[in-house]
Amino acid sequence: MRSHVWWGTTAMVLGLLAAGCGKGDGGEDAASDTAGKSVSEGYPVTVTDCTGAKTTFSAAPKKIVTSNASSLELLLRLGAGDKVIGTGFPPGKGTLPAALDAQAQQVPALGQTVIPKEKLLGSGADLYIDTFASMGSMGAGMGDAPTEAEYKSAGIKHIYLKSTACAATLKSPVTDLSAVQDDITSLGAVTGTGAKAKELVAGMKKKVAAVQEAVGGTAENKRPTYFFFDYDAGTKQPSVVCNRQVAHAVITLAGARNAFADCDGDHQQVGWEDVISKNPDWIQLGVRNRGSEAANKKAFDEAQKWLESNAATKGLKAVKGGHFLRIGSEQTTIAGVTNADTVEQIAKALYPGKVD
Fold first, then answer.
1. What is the per-residue pLDDT across 294-327, written as a single tens digit (0 to 9) for each?
2. Domain 3-204's class?
3. Topology adopted by domain 217-350
4. What's the pTM?
5. Are residues 214 and 351 in contact, defined by beta-carbon separation less than 8 angstroms?
């Protein structure tokens, strides 16, 4: 599957919870008052999508289907994994942290990619968490999405994760993780796991704040340029992360400059001549988790070797200097708790000695 299935995804999105679309600057309308109050006051809980359409829950859902591994992982981390009865884009064995992997492997795969419409509507779910802003954006052969009327007829509430699903509606670059944190808070409110959501968000904020204290004051022109090389998206034409993608926020918070920060949207295909013109200081080898440490190392080695041997890239500043970061794609381009870990990892590599 193309990388964008994990962006804004499993490259395209994590979706539409909390109110408003979430602002790149962590704007005040990123989460609704109702969702915020629900953590302490219980139900009803109301969440909105990117257009402002509301969905209200009078009680916690009992049977949840997730569109892919991103929303599945969030539910597992929140302690609501026992309510998940199926998923699309299932995570490969070993993709999630050990503590979550066994649980994830027990969730039935309703589709290896997008869940077929008929199977989703007949799943018996009372909630579908959609990571995709639009099935139409997923390309040919991805199937048709149910209409809202069809969801209603099947008794399924349909909500999105907004931290990436709203990329097309954002009016400014995403420079922090507030939308991701709002999604976690909203999912906690919807599933009755608000206390755990608060704990996860607090942990993310603490980690990012420590990095910001160490490197946040670095002048813009002193920050190294950074290229996320999505090796698994293919090498013929690179697919880059743009300024509406969560990876842009991760890179920015780590004290780097996204080489393609001038690209509006979540991702875009460019030519190698564009990468050469940027001549980045650092390159992250964007490799999807292969399920084992050995398999991951092999994939990272392959990505690095390709850059070092390809005539178009071997002269890049980062390649000549050996400035490669081996950090998994998922924790960088998929909105989730591990985004904060990636901020820390990148900062430690770029600013040795400054970040504990």
1. 999 999 999 999 999 999 999 999 999 999 999 9
2. alpha beta
3. Rossmann fold (3.40.50)
4. 0.84
5. yes
